[in-house]
Design a protein that fits this description.
Elements: E1 6-11, E2 14-20, H1 21-35, H2 39-49, H3 51-60, H4 72-77, E3 82-89, E4 93-99, H5 105-114, E5 119-120
Parallel strand pairs: 1-5
Antiparallel strand pairs: 1-2, 2-4, 3-4
């Protein structure tokens, strides 16, 4: 797989999107524009913008995934977009975004197309 391409898959009702750090930031900012501001998206962007610090934190705490803050109001109204994120460093900074179960794969595909990002859907 080309390392700049995004990989999209669905497992156990969750949509996983793996892509380079910069592209992940573009995707999250796109969702913030389209779905409105929510605590989970803002916190996810904060985590990605401080990749190195959060990567070290997750390694020290043996955490594979980091869960962004979510407000109760967003949870109840169905506005939560990001369930958790995974930070990886293997020659390049890569991110896996795990979307909330209410997010449809078509919505993520549309976002990737609108952003002009290449992706594969196995």
């Amino acid at each position: 797989m080309n390392s700049s391409r995004a990989r999209l898959c669905k497992q156990l009702g969750y949509i996983y999107l793996e892509l380079p750090l910069e592209n992940a930031l573009h995707v999250l900012k796109y969702f913030r524009e389209r779905r409105g501001v929510s605590e989970d998206i803002d916190d996810s962007i904060r985590i990605l913008e401080n990749f190195d610090a959060f990567y070290e934190y997750s390694r020290k705490k043996f955490k594979e995934y980091l869960a962004p803050k979510k407000s109760e109001a967003d949870l109840l109204s169905g506005r939560v977009t990001v369930d958790k994120v995974k930070l990886e460093l293997d020659g390049e900074k890569r991110v896996t975004i795990v979307f909330d179960k209410r997010i449809k794969v078509e919505v993520v595909v549309e976002a990737l197309k609108n952003l002009g990002l290449e992706f594969e859907l196995p």
